[in-house]
DNA sequence: AAATTTTAGTGTTCTTTTTACACTAAGTAC
DNA sequence: GTACTTAGTGTAAAAAGAACACTAAAATTT
């Protein structure tokens, strides 16, 4: 990359912010960090940071997830780019935002390693957020709600093996509406995307449910044949 | 905005590029401009330009549409942010892309006003594009194809008044599949989103079709009541 | 060890939506 | 006024979605 053609325009700074979703079996949660510095010192915020010259915005988002929340190998997808001129009081900052879906249980312990204060908040009990982060979160929720029905991304929020009841509870939490158990099972099993495992729940005070896992390979094959996931 | 907190990181340049869709009654078209300078001199490209400090990326995209293609008051929506490190051979450039839907007929004359060479290309006959613009176009087509069915954005590609056959032809072109005439009419009229005008086609060598217009007000009201557009 | 509590797991009927399909009407060109 | 072309219309069959209630199995309590 030669410097000879460098553009002279003053440039907005470029950051990446992440909306991190988790699911605890009953409710959707968001991972937030507490800001240590001004502006918005001590306010909760989305983890974010500046995009370096040698990384894509997605790589940046993944780096931030790792550095600020201890999350690794996580599903992320671009959400939207926010560019309001006054979104940061210090200077012009454009943010390419991502949303991440993580298996909360799997990461709970790792999340504390960094020195920052990191906490899960129920969507219904979000604190006031720094910058325009509330707006970003709202869009992320809307996107997740829209996408969960026609793309099999919900599995990213669950353990690799899960029961059908857990899966249903997840859909009910995200869509914010009850789903008929029999119809749900009929539909999801009818797609042929779930592998029934020879394993059941243990130490539950009721009939133990069978575990299933998402069959990624089958999904790819079906998709090629024109199949469309739809809950 | 004080300069005291300015970040020292070297910054990617930020641009905005626009994928402009038009419809000529039979086929989807794309508006491209020919590059006057290196790199990719004389190659066709998406209109684009640098984001200034005092404008959002969306305002930038609208400015570019106006400056480079003579388009004004156009429907645009953010597509995706492309940030591959090597997408421009000169230096690191991140591009926030938009797609625009325009009534091609309405703008045909104005488009030539700028000094740049500007031309409509059928999607099936796109030339080799500069930079990663082919990738951007592919994503835009995919997005349009996905969105046209559940958001009433197709009307942006038609004149304010249109016949049902024109509307159907548009859907068939975008979805790349034939649609049954009677079922299409039943569905679209059943939504109550079209105002039947007291006006018919003129100078056509066959039965003249009635004109309709999209009823934006009805759409907003229905949407509030939980209605979901769906073709 | 019997009874209680709790969630897992299963089919059928009715309703709604989607699909498939063919003829008459109205305008212009010749 | 005949030919040509596209507009405009309804019904029946198939598929998908919605509504609904009981038995099975595990741990806990009595």
Could you write a compact summary of the structure shown?
Two copies of one chain form a homodimer. The first copy, chain A, contains six helices and ten strands, in the order E-E-E-E-H-E-E-H-E-H-E-H-H-E-E-H. With 231 residues, the first copy, chain A, is of the alpha+beta class.
| Structural class by helix and strand composition of chain A | alpha+beta
**Strand fraction band of chain A?**
25-35%
Structure summary, number of beta strands of chain A: 10
Mean pLDDT of chain A, nearest integer? 93
Largest sheet of chain A: 7 strands, mixed
Rg from Cα of chain A: 20 Å
Q: Oligomeric status of the shown chains?
A: homodimer
Uncertain segments of chain A are none
Greatest interface by residues involved: A-B, 35 and 35 residues
How are helices and strands ordered from N to C of chain A?
A: EEEEHEEHEHEHHEEH
Question: Please, could you describe this protein's structure?
Answer:
The structure is a homodimer of 231-residue chains. Chain A is of the alpha+beta class and 231 residues long. Chain A has helices at residues 57-69, 104-107, 133-147, 164-175, 181-190, 216-224; strands at 13-23, 28-34, 44-45, 48-50, 75-82, 93-101, 118-122, 161-162, 194-200, 210-214. The longest helix of chain A is centred in the middle third of the chain and has 15 residues, at 133-147. Chain A binds a DNA duplex (30 and 30 nucleotides) through residues 163-165, 180-183, 185-187, 200-201, 203-210.
């Amino acid at each position: 990359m030669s410097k000879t053609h460098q553009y002279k325009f003053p440039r907005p700074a470029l950051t990446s912010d992440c909306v991190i979703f988790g699911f605890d079996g009953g409710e959707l949660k968001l991972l937030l960090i507490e800001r240590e510095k001004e502006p918005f010192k001590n306010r909760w915020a989305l983890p974010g940071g500046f995009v370096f010259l040698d990384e894509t915005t997605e790589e940046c988002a993944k780096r931030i997830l790792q550095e600020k929340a201890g999350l690794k190998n996580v599903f992320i997808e671009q959400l939207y780019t926010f560019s309001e001129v006054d979104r940061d009081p210090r200077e012009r900052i454009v943010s390419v935002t991502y949303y991440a879906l993580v298996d909360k249980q799997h990461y709970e312990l790792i999340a504390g390693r960094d020195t920052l204060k990191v906490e899960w908040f129920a969507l219904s009990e979000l604190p006031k957020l720094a910058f325009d982060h509330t707006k970003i979160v709202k869009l992320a929720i809307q996107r997740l709600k829209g996408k969960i029905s026609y793309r099999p991304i919900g599995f990213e929020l669950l353990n690799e093996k899960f029961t059908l009841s857990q899966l249903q509870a997840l859909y009910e939490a995200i869509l914010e509406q009850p789903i008929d158990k029999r119809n749900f099972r009929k539909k999801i099993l009818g797609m042929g995307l779930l592998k029934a495992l020879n394993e059941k729940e243990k130490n539950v005070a009721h009939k133990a449910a069978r575990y299933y896992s998402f069959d990624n390979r089958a999904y790819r094959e079906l998709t090629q044949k024109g199949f469309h996931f739809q809950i």
